[in-house]
Design brief:
By secondary structure, the chain is mainly alpha-helical. About 65% of the residues lie in helices and about 0% in strands. The chain is globular, with a radius of gyration of 13 Å.
Amino acid sequence: MCEAINENKRAELISILVENLPVFRAKLGATQDTFAQRVGLTKTTLNHIENHKKELTWSNFITIILLLMQNEDTKPLVEVMGLYPEDLKNFLMFQE
């Protein structure tokens, strides 16, 4: 059985992603508006997340990571930054 990612690990991963969202968007050539639409957020919400006025939820973190892992320009950055560690991969496999 795969253990869930603990709250401290989640917070750490979310923090790293939030700090680097503008970098990822630049790599994708995406505006806040287009990126927000792709991940199911409003532009305002994404702006507030990037400016630390609102917290990124764990479910939105997962959505963003999965999107970034599908792009050849952002996948290496995700891996180098440790945003898709083995414990998260195993958790998402949903094996009992």
